[in-house]
Design a protein that fits this description.
Distance between the termini: 88 Å
Structural class: alpha+beta
Helix content: 10-25%
Number of strands: 17
Low-confidence stretches: none
Order of helices and strands: HHHHHHHHEEEEEEEEEEEEEEEEEHH
Radius of gyration: 32 Å
Shape: elongated
Largest sheet: 4 strands, antiparallel
């Protein structure tokens, strides 16, 4: 082709066999549709060399071979659904060249992240915070975590009279709002730490699952504990539980919790409790009398005193505190409805405000964040595969190698005078 770049038959035969043939053809032959199509079968990059980048069939052939060649397509075709879909199926990162409308197309985005999770970077904002899309992206490449949209959702979780987790958004919580079933049961109490929800089931053992993936079909993982407990709370790397045997608080290290490990304690006095929750450095305990009390969670011991009762105007089953600027204390009353008052105004004689319809026996309120949940899931998977142990072993080996390679300091000759210490 270099020797005879005007010979059509020669260029056609060469283009059908060699990806670089069109590079040496004369401009007129680069417009020849048959030659161009023959070249595209070997290298989509050839689209750069031809003015036929506005021909849909030519572009489809190119992007099917090399999705990245979408960058050379005519602008009109960057808005063509069939062309963009073919491109991202070959190379998910080609999504970057698509028009915004197609970056918001669920099928196209799913095809892109299925090919490579890193394509999530180029998806529209709503798909970067969609659970299904994000999960596919992470399964393809966990580097997709960097592009997951972090958005906190203020959420209320309760246990219904049917003993399953119920859910509704906190901003819509009202006397007329409806609950949505969110899990399997039967459950007695729940607490949330980060992206994980922990539950005490009817066997009085602790179970868990990821909050954002929880649904009516998902399975609880466990049991995680041995002794029977009524209620649990998590703080500072510890899990606290009310033992069924004496209704007092015990604790153990969260990451070491197993069915064989024993609870340490008791870490509370002899007052009998039915549920606990933790906010900042305070543990709030609901007594079997329906009143609630508090004490510093980090100063608890077997004779530490509960302060209270903090309210005498509502018989309480469960409480949860939520809020940054103005923290609110939410409580499930004996009527199975949620009541609240501002934490700073809490007083034994202050009346509560009703904020929901009935049918729950326990609650917890939190910020649900998809990115945080994904990070926890990846870390749990990483630990399950023993990657953290491999890292520790590699670090220990590196330290021992460094110590062996470091030259020892020469010993001072016998009888040599020791340097005098310098006085102040």
């Amino acid at each position: 082709v270099r020797q005879d770049p005007t010979n059509r038959a020669l260029v056609l035969r060469a283009a059908d066999r060699n990806r670089y043939a069109m590079l040496h053809a004369v401009p007129d032959l680069r417009k020849d549709r048959e030659i161009v199509l023959a070249s595209m079968k070997h290298c989509g990059d050839s689209l750069l060399l031809t003015p036929l980048n506005n021909d849909k069939e030519v572009v489809l052939e190119a992007v099917s071979q090399l999705g990245e060649s979408l960058r050379y397509a005519d602008k009109r075709l960057l808005n063509d659904r069939e062309v963009v879909l073919a491109a991202v199926q070959q190379d998910g990162l080609a999504l970057r060249y698509a028009k915004d409308k197609l970056k918001d197309d669920r099928e196209i985005v799913m095809a892109a992240v299925r090919q490579t999770g890193r394509a999530l970077r180029h998806a529209s904002e709503r798909w970067r915070k969609d659970l299904d899309v994000v999960m596919v992206a992470l399964q393809s490449n966990n580097a997709a975590l960097a592009y997951v949209e972090s958005e906190k959702h203020e959420s209320v979780y309760g246990i219904g009279l049917n003993n399953v987790v119920l859910f509704q958004p906190l901003p819509s919580l009202s006397k007329t709002s409806n609950w949505v079933e969110q899990s399997k049961g039967p459950l007695k109490s729940i607490t949330i730490e980060g992206a994980t929800i922990y539950a005490v089931k009817d066997d009085m053992r602790i179970y868990k699952q990821m909050l954002v993936t929880m649904n009516t079909e998902s399975q609880w993982i466990g049991p995680l504990s041995g002794d029977e407990v009524l209620s649990v709370a998590v703080a500072g790397g510890y899990v606290y539980g009310i033992k069924n045997s004496d209704k007092r608080v015990y604790k153990q290290v969260l990451v070491q919790m197993t069915t064989e490990n024993k609870w340490n304690g008791p870490v509370s006095d002899e007052m009998e409790l039915s549920s606990i929750s933790i906010y900042e450095d305070q543990m709030y305990g609901v007594g079997i009398d329906g009143k609630f009390y508090r004490q510093n969670v980090f100063a608890m011991c077997n004779n530490s005193t509960w302060h209270g009762p903090l309210s005498e105007t509502l018989k309480v089953q469960s409480i949860s505190i939520f809020g940054v600027a103005v923290p609110k204390l939410f409580a499930v009353g004996a009527d199975n409805k949620i009541h609240w008052q501002a934490l700073k105004d809490l007083h034994p004689k202050r009346q509560w405000m009703l904020t929901s319809q009935g049918d729950i026996t326990a609650l917890v309120i939190c910020n649900r964040d998809l990115k945080e949940a994904c990070q926890d899931m990846l870390e749990a998977d990483w630990r399950a595969k023993g990657a953290h142990l491999e890292r520790r072993a590699a670090a220990a080996k590196a330290r021992s190698s460094e110590g062996a390679a470091r030259p020892k300091s020469a010993a001072a000759p016998e009888g040599a005078a020791r340097p005098k210490s310098v006085g102040a």
